[in-house]
Amino acid sequence: MDRPSARRFEGKVALVTASTAGIGLGIARRLGQEGAKVVVCSRKKASVEDTVAALRAEGIEAAGRPCHVGDAAQLKAIVDFTVQTYGGLDVLVSNAAVNPASGALLDCPAPVIDKIFDINVKSALLLTQEAVKHMSRGSSIVFISSYSAFNPPAPIALYAISKTALLGLTKGLATELGPRGIRVNCVAPGIVPTKFASALVADPELEAAQRDANLMRRLGRVQDMAAAVAYLTSEDASYVTAETLNVSGGMPSRL
């Protein structure tokens, strides 16, 4: 995909979590290509350093530091780092997620339940609580959910249910932050063949089945998700809040 010509984020600062690979990196890159100063993070210092160097080599203003989103102190630290480095925060994209196990809901052990909801839901709210302290009217927040949120499938139902929770979190926070002029939206990606989703396309037959399950008859691309986030966080969507944009080639999107 060609580099976008729009510069909708000139003078803006964006923080994207889990942004050294996959969809998160694609989002950070797209916002940076449109003029944002971008802060990236992930758990590994080397990954952050490599990503910052790569983005800067592309002409993007970028900085970063390690952050384990399951640690509230580190969430505060990455927000503080963003504000100290670039003087503010205008766009927050909460992308971090885990799926440490698969199987039946009735067989899921308590530690796995705790980890999925701590990382996929609790951290998103705690991060927002820290971020909004520095966000002013016109700022924007996007949560990355999943097409599976609308109909949690076996054997990843628990992961999908955590993504369903983000749909509610989006609406709840949009209600609270709307009077302050801060918009909150959500993107629900379809299957994008990143490392995170590798099990879903592990062999040609499975990949073909996933491709044929949507109306477009293709898998999603990182660029598709990045473009959706760029729209929702830009002034082009200035009257859009509390919404979930299903970017999945036409997969069903009703609870």
Structure notes:
The chain is α/β, with parallel strands linked by helices and 255 residues long. It has one domain: 3-Layer(aba) Sandwich (Rossmann fold). 41% of the residues lie in helices and 12% in strands. It is built from 7 helices and 7 strands, in the order βαβαβαβαβαβααβ. It has helices at residues 22-33, 45-57, 72-86, 110-131, 157-177, 204-212, 222-233, and strands at residues 13-16, 37-40, 62-64, 91-94, 140-144, 183-189, 244-247. The chain has a 7-stranded parallel sheet with strand order 3-2-1-4-5-6-7, with helices on both faces. Strand 5, helix 5 and strand 6 (183-189) form a beta-alpha-beta unit. Helix 3 runs parallel beside helix 4 (110-131) and helix 4 (110-131) packs parallel to helix 5. The longest helix has 22 residues, at 110-131. The two termini are 33 Å apart. The model has no long low-confidence stretch (mean pLDDT 94). Pfam families: adh_short_C2. Belongs to the short-chain dehydrogenases/reductases (SDR) family. This is Dehydrogenase/reductase SDR family member 4. It comes from Auxenochlorella protothecoides.
